[in-house]
């Protein structure tokens, strides 16, 4: 799926017809073309407000699905039923909660990138603009080569832990059914209360991003060369506060060593 050119449509089908089409390669009935792919991602009852919950939307199936005790019951956020056609690829994105992705039937390739590779992924919000991760356009995305790819293939019965903020890209190698479970690992107030999908940035992060946007707009009052200069100074402040404390390797080694030592504390 391509979120940049939106090569997909949202449609409603009876469940048995959806499963039939998702599991076949060529369709006699179709929306766009005879070899189109299908993807189901379950939603909450009131999909604008409520997170998906397998036990509410698919109670019969939920009896077969037991979540390991990896978190306290009050940390539970959502359980999402997913069905994919063979070949369906979901763009690289991050979610803001810890996640267990359970493969029930079919095989799925999952490629992960660390949050520390954020600057190599050409993000547009929570998604990477590098759609073809296997043959990326390196003229457009030269820094993508610096991102470290972690890859696995989920077989039926496998569970993958995807920590919050870890980027993931999925490719169904066969028609398959899965469930993923999101849970809150930060205090409940850290999360956006109006987020049924589990992908809105934590409230403090959203506020910080808004403030940065405002700061950049403030620079518009100055001539271009001043905007450039003060933009660079802002980058330096951000680098000092974030990259250095999170990971020494990310530090700009051109910083004076005295400053560098101080930043490690
Ligand atoms: O399995 C998929 O197709 C996508 C999974 C995903 O994005 C998730 O579990 O957060
Ligand atoms: Fe996800």
From TrEMBL:
Pfam families found in the cross-reference section: Cupin_8 (PF13621)
GO BP annotation list: wybutosine biosynthetic process
InterPro entries: Cupin_8, JmjC_dom
Signal peptide (from-to): none
SUPFAM superfamilies reported for this sequence: Clavaminate synthase-like
GO MF term list: tRNA binding
Sequence ranges assigned to domain JmjC in this UniProt record: 47-200
Identification of the protein by name: tRNA wybutosine-synthesizing protein 5 isoform X3
Gene name tied to this protein: tyw5
């Amino acid at each position: 799926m391509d979120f940049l050119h939106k090569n997909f449509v949202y449609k409603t089908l009876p469940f048995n017809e959806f499963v039939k089409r998702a599991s076949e390669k060529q369709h006699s009935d179709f929306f766009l073309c005879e070899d189109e792919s299908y993807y189901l991602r379950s939603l909450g009852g009131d999909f604008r407000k409520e997170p998906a919950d397998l036990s509410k939307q698919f109670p019969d199936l939920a009896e077969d699905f037991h979540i390991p005790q990896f978190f306290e019951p009050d940390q539970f956020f959502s359980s999402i039923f997913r069905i994919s056609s063979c070949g369906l690829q979901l763009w690289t994105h991050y979610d803001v909660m810890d996640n267990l992705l359970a493969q029930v039937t079919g095989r799925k390739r999952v490629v992960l990138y660390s949050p520390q590779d954020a600057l190599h992924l050409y993000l547009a919000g929570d998604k990477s603009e590098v759609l073809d991760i296997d043959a990326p356009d390196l003229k457009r995305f030269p820094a993508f080569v610096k991102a470290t790819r972690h890859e696995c293939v989920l077989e039926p019965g496998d569970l993958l832990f995807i920590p919050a903020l870890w980027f993931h890209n999925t490719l169904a190698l066969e028609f398959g059914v899965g469930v993923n479970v999101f849970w809150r690992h930060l205090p409940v107030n850290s999360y956006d209360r109006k987020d049924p999908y589990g992908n809105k940035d934590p409230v403090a992060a959203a506020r910080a991003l808004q403030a940065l946007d405002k700061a950049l707009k403030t620079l518009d009052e100055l001539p271009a060369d001043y905007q450039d200069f003060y933009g660079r100074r802002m980058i330096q402040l951000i680098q000092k506060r974030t990259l250095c404390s999170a990971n020494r390797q990310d530090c700009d080694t051109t910083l004076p060593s005295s400053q560098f030592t101080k930043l490690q504390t």
